[in-house]
């Protein structure tokens, strides 16, 4: 009997385990290859009667059987096995695989799947949809990363998400090497790729600092809307006020806020539906605070009726916003703040401010705040997001107030 699951190597997704007499034996799931003779089969070595009990051998036998079935299929339909699989078809196959099999055997949300597809679409646009996977080099991947950070303005942390999706595509196609011809992953081979770890130390803004930042964003938006054309150096400036207000008044994760659909803003019932992407419980409803409502009402009215997203991409209005680093930096400089503000800073700020609010005259419950943040318990609130503020204001609503005026 297997007593230590951590010692078992990662199994091919087609491998299933059956316990027979207390012994784990490995079987392959090939029923989708039924016309080629595939089925639910015991993975056994030649000359053996029973399925193998060795996971390493099971992986080898599974891969060999898959190659055999793929070759049979290619001969049956009269097709040549493709050795130069192109980027776009490979991306479509990868997204389809993730939809069917999830991540590490666990289902993923439709929104997360859409984000993976969108990021791969950016890679396809840069690298070329007809480019054979096998021809993409480490240098190509490095150039793609530079394009993301320098031309699209995304952070190195976000750029790493694009690289992770591209790497996942390669890993997937390596599993089906008889079809793709891929045996190497250029993303994994790039030793100097950016870290996926955020350098944000988990800082937050005091109430008056958040108010100064919002006022700076309002001024940036006011200046941008007076222009006849979109500022090519800061194409997100016209939405700076609404964007920062939504980040500060919802505590949403960057991806959640940037891809927030207009229809999820319920002005009648004063709530916002955040369709979370990170965990099953991150799908939630948060209050539409009066201060945020006052900002979003005219902003939403100014959007085209066909607009799907609250913050559409300036490059393609049918897609959500990807980055706003330049806009955030501009607002921070105008507000003369002490720290570099990111969407995560706004998330910390919301949580710390929300903890000062009351509900029916009593302090808000930690679990209520945790649920608004997209967590199923209070652990992250206590360990990470909750901070003691200098001048806490007890109130039944969130509002960021300042006493100073910013220079225009």
Report what the structure shows:
The protein has 408 residues and is mainly alpha-helical. It has three domains: 5-76, no CATH class; 87-189, DNA polymerase, domain 1 (Orthogonal Bundle); 207-385, Orthogonal Bundle (hpI Integrase, Chain A), CATH 1.10.443.10. Helix content is 45%, strand content 7%. The protein is built from 15 helices and eight strands. The chain has helices at residues 55-76, 87-101, 110-127, 138-151, 156-175, 177-180, 186-189, 207-226, 240-250, 254-258, 290-302, 325-335, 343-354, 366-373, 379-385; strands spanning 15-20, 23-29, 40-42, 265-266, 271-274, 284-287, 358-359, 362-363. The chain has a three-stranded antiparallel sheet with strand order 1-2-3. Helix 2 runs antiparallel to helix 3, helix 3 (110-127) packs across helix 5 and helix 9 packs across helix 13 (343-354). Residues 1-6 and 79-83 have low confidence and may be disordered.
- Largest sheet composition: 3 strands, antiparallel
**Which percent range fits the helix content?**
40-55%
Task: Please work out how many helical segments DSSP would assign.
Answer: 15
Number of strands: 8
Radius of gyration: 26 Å
Strand content is 5-15%
Write the layout of secondary structure elements.
Layout (H helix, E strand, L loop, with lengths): L14 E6 L2 E7 L10 E3 L12 H22 L10 H15 L8 H18 L10 H14 L4 H20 L1 H4 L5 H4 L17 H20 L13 H11 L3 H5 L6 E2 L4 E4 L9 E4 L2 H13 L22 H11 L7 H12 L3 E2 L2 E2 L2 H8 L5 H7 L23
Antiparallel strand pairs: 1-2, 2-3, 4-5, 5-6, 7-8
Helix pairs in contact: 2-3, 2-5, 3-5, 4-5, 8-9, 8-12, 9-11, 9-13
């Amino acid at each position: 009997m297997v007593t230590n699951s951590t010692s078992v190597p990662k199994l091919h997704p087609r491998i299933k385990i059956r316990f027979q007499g207390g012994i784990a034996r490995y079987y392959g799931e090939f029923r989708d290859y039924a016309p080629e003779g595939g089925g639910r089969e015991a993975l056994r070595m030649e000359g053996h009667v029973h399925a193998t009990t060795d996971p390493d051998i099971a992986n080898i036998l599974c891969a060999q059987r898959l190659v055999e079935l793929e070759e049979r299929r290619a001969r049956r339909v009269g097709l040549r096995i493709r050795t130069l699989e192109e980027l776009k078809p490979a991306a479509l196959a990868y997204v389809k695989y993730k939809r069917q099999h999830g991540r590490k055997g666990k289902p993923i949300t439709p929104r997360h799947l859409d984000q993976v597809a969108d990021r791969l679409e950016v890679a396809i646009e840069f690298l070329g949809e007809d480019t054979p996977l096998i021809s993409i080099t480490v240098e190509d991947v490095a150039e793609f990363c530079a394009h993301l950070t320098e031309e699209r303005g995304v952070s190195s942390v976000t750029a790493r998400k694009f690289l992770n999706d591209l790497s996942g595509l390669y890993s997937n196609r390596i599993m089906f090497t008889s079809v793709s011809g891929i045996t190497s992953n250029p993303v994994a081979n790039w030793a100097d790729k950016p870290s996926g770890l955020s350098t944000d130390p988990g800082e937050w803004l005091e109430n008056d600092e958040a108010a100064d930042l919002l006022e700076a964003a309002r001024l940036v938006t006011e200046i941008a809307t007076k222009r006849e054309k979109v500022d090519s150096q800061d194409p997100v400036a016209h939405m700076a006020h609404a964007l920062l207000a939504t980040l500060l008044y919802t505590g949403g994760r960057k991806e959640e806020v940037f891809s927030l659909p207009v229809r999820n803003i319920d002005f009648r019932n004063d709530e916002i539906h955040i369709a979370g992407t990170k965990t099953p419980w991150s799908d939630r409803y948060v209050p539409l605070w009066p201060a945020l409502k006052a900002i979003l009402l005219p902003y939403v009215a100014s959007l085209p009726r066909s607009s799907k997203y609250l913050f559409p991409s300036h490059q393609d209005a049918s897609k959500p916003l990807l980055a706003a680093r330049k806009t955030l930096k501009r607002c921070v400089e105008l507000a003369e703040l002490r720290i570099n503000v990111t969407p995560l800073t706004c998330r910390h700020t919301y949580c710390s401010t929300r903890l000062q609010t009351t509900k029916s005259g009593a302090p808000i419950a930690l679990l209520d705040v945790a649920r608004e943040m997209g967590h199923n318990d209070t652990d992250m609130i206590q360990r990470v997001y909750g901070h003691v503020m200098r001048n806490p204001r007890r109130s039944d609503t969130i509002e960021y107030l300042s006493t100073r005026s910013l220079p225009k």
